[in-house]
Amino acid sequence: MGQRLVAEGCSHYQVGPGPSWGGADKASYAAWQQKLGFSGGDADGIPGQTSWDRLQVPSPNGDNGSRASSPVPDHGITTGYHVPGSHWSLGYHTGADYAADEGTPCVAVLNGSISRADDDPSFGHYLVLRVDGSDFWYCHLSERLVGAGAGVGAGQEIGRVGQTGNATGPHLHFEKRPAGGGFGSDVSPDW
Ligand SMILES: [Zn+2]
């Protein structure tokens, strides 16, 4: 938090900022609230929801609280979207793969809800995260940690990497479709 306050030009720190809350934090936070246009009791140096959200303090895993940097934290794409290949039923890869050890956590990339939690011969154990008009498919899971209907927050662990269904090794197949879209309606898996 302190680093973000400094970056916003609201520093009242003589030293630091440090890990524990102190008077300089309060003074710096009050300066941030004033920068946002708050005054009086709304600029008392005690974080409120609006000013906190606007500050976008990174969480320890590099996320800002409303968007995870990867569906498999600390792992990048190992097979990209739309790569051609005859072993895929549509002749191309319909999502992005994140190879990782069996059991590696998979997290919600955005705040949303679980619209489906089911099994499929190809996708294995899978979950579908619905966010506004989009579905994000998490496939080949070894384990599901949430069920259909659950509300989930960005960065929340919802499943674990596996190789259930049609998979040659443990990885997350991460696919995006319009909400309710069937196989073949995939779009680039951005979020
Ligand atoms: Zn895949």
Shape: elongated
CATH superfamily of the largest domain: Glucose Permease (Domain IIA)
Largest sheet: 6 strands, antiparallel
The helix/strand series, from N terminus to C terminus, equals HHHEEEEEEEEE
Count of domains:
2
* CATH architecture level-2 label of the largest domain: Distorted Sandwich
Residue share in β-strands:
25-35%
Summed over residues and divided by their number, the pLDDT gives a mean of: 92
The name of the CATH topology of the largest domain is Glucose Permease (Domain IIA)
Protein name: Murein DD-endopeptidase MepM/ murein hydrolase activator NlpD
Pfam families: Peptidase_M23
GO molecular function: hydrolase activity
Keywords: Hydrolase
How does this structure look, described?
The protein is of the alpha+beta class and 191 residues long. The chain folds into two domains: 2-55, no CATH class; 65-191, Glucose Permease (Domain IIA) (Distorted Sandwich), CATH 2.70.70.10. 14% of the residues lie in helices and 25% in strands. It has helices at residues 2-7, 23-35, 49-55; strands at residues 96-99, 105-107, 112-120, 124-131, 134-141, 143-144, 151-152, 157-160, 171-178. The strands form two sheets. Strands 1-9-5-4-3-7 form a six-stranded antiparallel sheet, with no helix packed on it. A three-stranded antiparallel sheet has the order 2-8-6, with no helix packed on it. The chain starts with a helix and ends in a 13-residue tail after the last strand. Zinc ion is lined by residues 93, 95, 97, 173.
